[in-house]
Design goal:
mainly alpha
């Protein structure tokens, strides 16, 4: 039987979990529509960065298959917090 070449399951699940975190972050803290793709990409890149860091360190608190959930989620939340700090518009003082 031939194996099909496609996206590895671990990468797909990590991207989906990062997407869920990024889109959920926008639902809670997003103020503008242009922030939606920024938070989405931040969630995905942050989660994948946590997966890579966990692999390099050789440690994982809790895994779902090959995906370190805690490290990926913490990394994504860190990236999303930084993005929130840089993209949230400041309130103008009322006169």
């Amino acid at each position: 039987m031939l194996e099909s070449e496609g996206i590895p399951a671990g990468l797909l699940i990590a991207s989906l979990l990062g997407s869920m975190l990024g889109l959920g972050w926008h639902a809670l803290f997003g103020r503008r529509l242009w922030q939606l793709p920024v938070y989405w990409l931040g969630g995905v890149i942050g989660f994948l960065g946590g997966v890579i860091a966990s692999g390099l360190l050789g440690r994982a608190f809790y895994r779902l298959g090959t995906i370190p959930l805690v490290e990926g989620a913490l990394s994504a939340l860190f990236v999303l917090t930084l993005l929130w700090l840089f993209t949230t518009p400041t309130e103008r003082p009322q006169r």
